[in-house]
Design goal:
Gustatory receptor; membrane; 10 helices; mainly alpha; receptor; cell membrane; transducer
C-alpha cells in the first residue's frame, strides 16, 4: 500500500517548479528527508520566479497607470493591492515551507499505521492514483493554463490548492476513523437497547485515539503552514472589494473580474467539513451508557472526549478567525453589497 507522500510527490514537484514549494529532496520517496533551507538553490529559484511574475503583472497592467481618469486611478490601487498580495503570498510560502515537512511526515506516518488499526477500504492502486495524484494535479495544471496571462495569480491562489490537498486528505482520514468506530460497534445506539460492547474495547479505542491525536496535530500544523497566508489574503480581498465598489460608484459600466476570489469559498467549505468530520467522534461516543462498558473503557472514552474539548478540531487563520462556514456569510455579504451598489448606480444613470 502506497503512503501519502508517494501520491503527493508529483504535486510537490509541480509546486516547486512554480516556485511556491521551496523544499529540498522532494524527488526522494522518503518523506523524512524533506527539509527547508533558507540559503538554498530552491529559495533562490523561487525568488527568481517571483520576480518574473511581478514583472509580468506590471507588463499586463502597466497601461492603467498612463490613463488619467478617476476609475483607472482606482484600478491602479487594485494593481497595487495585487502586487502586495503576491508579495505577502511569497513571504508566507517562503516562511511557512519550513513547517510543511512535519505535516507531510505526520500524514505519511498515519497512512503507514492505519492499516494495523482501522477498518479501511482497500481501493485499487489505480483508484488511489487517480484520486490522490491525477485529480489534484489536473486541477492545478488547468488553473495554471487558464491564468497564464496573469502570472502573479499563481502566487495568490496556487498555495490554496496545496492547502486543499492536505485538508481533503485529513478529512478523508477522519472519515475512516469514524467508520471504524461504527463497524466495530463502538458507538452509541439509542435505538438498540440490547447492544453488547466488547469488555476489551478500551484496547482498540486507545489505538484509535492515538491516530485521532495524530490527525489533530496535522490540523494544527495545517493552520501553522497556511493560516497566516489565508488571513492576509482575506484582508487583501476585502480591500479589493472596497476599491471596486468605489469604481462602480464613479463608473457604472466598468466590469471587474472577481472569480479569482472564489477560491476562498472552496477553502471555507473544505475546512468546515474537516471540522465536522474531526468532531463527529464526540456524537459517536458521548451517549454510550457507562453501565454497559468496563471501567477502563469508560476512562478511555473520557480521555477521548476531554482532549477534543481542550483541543477542538478546527483550522485557525493565525488566530484571527476559524475557517468554517461562519466566514461564508461575510464573503457573500461583500459580493451582495457590490451588486447592490452597481444596481443603484445603473438606476441613477437611467433617471
Amino acid at each position: 500500500m502506497k503512503s501519502f507522500y508517494w501520491h503527493f510527490r508529483p504535486t510537490a514537484v509541480l509546486s516547486k517548479c512554480l516556485g511556491v514549494f521551496p523544499l529540498e529532496n522532494v524527488l526522494n520517496l522518503d518523506a523524512s528527508l524533506l527539509n527547508y533551507k533558507l540559503f538554498s538553490w530552491s529559495n533562490l529559484y523561487s525568488l527568481i520566479i517571483f520576480t518574473f511574475y511581478i514583472n509580468m503583472l506590471y507588463f499586463c497592467s502597466g497601461f492603467i497607470f498612463d490613463i488619467p481618469s478617476v476609475s483607472h486611478k482606482f484600478l491602479c490601487y487594485v494593481v497595487y493591492v495585487m502586487v502586495i498580495r503576491s508579495f505577502l503570498s511569497f513571504m508566507c510560502c517562503s516562511h511557512n515551507s519550513r513547517k510543511a515537512p512535519k505535516l507531510i511526515r505526520l500524514l505519511d506516518t498515519f497512512d503507514r499505521k492505519k492499516h494495523q488499526i482501522l477498518v479501511v477500504n482497500d481501493y485499487s492502486t489505480t483508484f488511489n492514483v487517480f484520486m490522490w495524484m491525477i485529480i489534484p494535479n489536473l486541477v492545478s495544471i488547468t488553473f495554471l493554463y487558464l491564468s497564464l496571462e496573469e502570472a502573479a495569480h499563481t502566487w495568490q491562489i496556487f498555495p490554496y490548492f496545496i492547502y486543499l490537498h492536505f485538508a481533503v486528505k485529513i478529512t478523508y482520514n477522519f472519515i475512516e476513523i469514524n467508520n471504524t468506530l461504527v463497524n466495530k460497534n463502538m458507538i452509541c445506539d439509542y435505538l438498540n437497547k440490547d447492544i453488547n460492547y466488547d469488555p476489551e474495547m478500551y484496547v482498540t479505542l486507545s489505538k484509535i485515539r492515538m491516530l485521532h491525536n495524530m490527525l489533530s496535530e496535522c490540523v494544527t500544523e495545517l493552520g501553522k503552514c497556511y493560516g497566516t497566508s489565508i488571513a492576509l489574503d482575506q484582508l487583501c480581498i476585502t480591500t479589493v472589494f472596497i476599491v471596486n465598489i468605489s469604481v462602480y460608484v464613479y463608473e457604472g459600466d466598468h466590469n471587474t473580474e472577481f472569480s479569482k476570489c472564489n477560491h476562498n469559498i472552496s477553502v471555507i467549505f473544505v475546512s468546515d467539513e474537516l471540522k465536522v468530520r474531526g468532531s463527529e467522534v464526540i456524537s459517536l461516543l458521548y451517549g454510550i451508557p457507562s453501565t454497559a462498558i468496563s471501567e477502563k473503557t469508560q476512562q478511555e472514552i473520557n480521555s477521548f472526549l476531554t482532549q477534543l474539548a481542550v483541543r477542538p478540531i478546527e483550522v485557525s487563520a493565525a488566530g484571527y478567525f476559524v475557517l468554517d462556514k461562519s466566514q461564508t456569510l461575510a464573503t457573500i455579504c461583500r459580493k451582495a453589497e457590490l451588486s447592490d451598489s452597481r444596481q443603484q448606480r445603473s438606476r441613477r444613470l437611467t433617471l
